[in-house]
Design a protein that fits this description.
Layout (H helix, E strand, L loop, with lengths): L18 H11 L6 H12 L4 H9 L8 H6 L29 H27 L3 H14 L3 H43 L10 H9 L8 E8 L2 H8 L1 H19 L3 E6 L2 E7 L3 H17 L2 E2 L6 E3 L3 E7 L6 H17 L5 E3 L1
Parallel strand pairs: 6-7
Antiparallel strand pairs: 1-3, 1-6, 2-3, 4-5
Helix pairs in contact: 1-2, 2-5, 5-7, 9-10, 10-11
Length: 351
């Protein structure tokens, strides 16, 4: 049996009621959230009451029957999430900003943003259709006013003009709100694409952008590459889960020790640091403080309470030359890191 709990037939078009108000009543009657797709569906039904779509909706909603999701989908419309009624489900249109993001989160954000864009485009097209020829009609109405002798006709024309302007303003307000929401989602998508999922640190894409846009007038810059010594052994002995936690802990320790300089996870167990406004000697001191901080930590397997032993890092740090390409500076820092490894690990090699 169909759901007849809510009177949901198409609202009657009364002269004193705007189209926007009837759309709001329609959405409320059928328990549809005010998403752009739902708004577009309601507009299509109510703006053309003699259309095939409106007639089918009217037939489905006789005797106060509410439209179901399957009804709306069979009519060719898209149905969004219903309002949350409790539990952990998020309301439609919200974005999950929790720390347990997966690599698919950025893709999901892009898909959600694209859906929002589609709804925004539909709103704009609706506004365009509604206001098509409005300027010409306004001019014709103005000309008619000068020729009218009956005040009732003047009032009628003026009221119609005011109603159309009001409806357009309301829809433009909806479009503006949607644009603001899109902007927020795109900012989050951009941040997600530049952040390492495991450690929460910026990734190599963020490093490349920072390197390319650094203020060359702010003083010298240095580049450091850091690598966790014998990290493969940690994974082999204790498992990749423990290895991931060690990576995260060391990455966060490096970020705190090097602040406000940029620390990124460059890949695997390797981190890169872009140090701005300091000379090579000071940069080497900062990296040596990082090395000492990591060496002083005593890591344990939290499942078994087994000590992991002393974990150390090695680093190669170099000054970035004027107008030097990132690849050239990286090659030099990588060679210095190799030297630090070869000379016994747990050390910083500068040059």
């Amino acid at each position: 049996m169909r759901d007849a709990r809510v009177a949901g037939s198409i609202p009657d078009a009364r002269p004193d009621e705007t189209l926007f108000a009837r759309i709001g009543a329609f959405l409320a009657a059928h328990k549809l959230t005010p998403d752009p797709a739902h708004y577009a569906f309601a507009y299509a039904v109510l703006s053309a009451p003699e259309s095939a779509l409106a007639l089918r909706v009217d037939a489905l909603t006789q005797d106060g029957v509410r439209l179901t999701r399957s009804d709306i989908e069979r009519l060719g419309a898209t149905v969004g999430d219903e309002p949350s009624t409790g539990g952990s489900r998020r309301p439609s249109g919200t974005v999950d900003t929790s720390a347990d993001r997966t690599p698919d989160t950025a893709i999901a954000l892009v898909i959600e943003t694209q859906q929002q864009v589609d709804g925004f485009v539909q709103i704009v097209r609706t506004i365009q259709a509604e206001t098509h020829g409005f300027g010409r009609e306004l001019a014709e109405s103005a000309a008619s006013i000068t020729q009218l002798a009956e005040i009732d006709e003047i009032v009628g024309i003026t009221s119609a003009m005011i109603t159309r302007i009001y409806d357009s303003e309301v829809r433009l307000a909806v479009a503006t709100a949607e644009a603001d929401s899109l902007r927020s989602k795109l900012v989050e998508a951009r941040d997600t694409a530049r952040r390492d999922v495991l450690t929460g640190l910026p990734n190599r894409r963020a490093f490349a952008e920072a390197f390319a846009t650094r203020d060359r007038e702010a003083g010298p810059y240095c580049l450091a590459l850091c690598d966790i010594d014998r990290f493969k052994r940690i994974n082999d002995v204790h498992g990749h889960g423990v290895g991931d936690r060690v990576l995260t802990a060391i990455g966060q320790a490096m970020a705190a020790e090097c602040a406000p300089h940029l620390v990124v996870r460059h890949g695997g167990e390797e981190f890169a640091v872009l140090l701005g406004g300091i000379a090579l000697a000071e940069a080497a001191e900062i990296l040596d403080a990082v090395r000492a901080t990591v060496a002083a930590k005593r890591f344990r397997n939290r499942e078994t309470d087994t000590p992991l032993g002393v974990i150390t890092v090695s680093a190669g740090v170099t000054a970035i030359h004027a107008d030097e390409a990132a690849e050239t500076a990286f090659q030099r820092a990588d060679q210095l890191l190799y030297t630090a490894k070869k000379d016994g690990r747990d050390r910083v090699c500068a040059g």
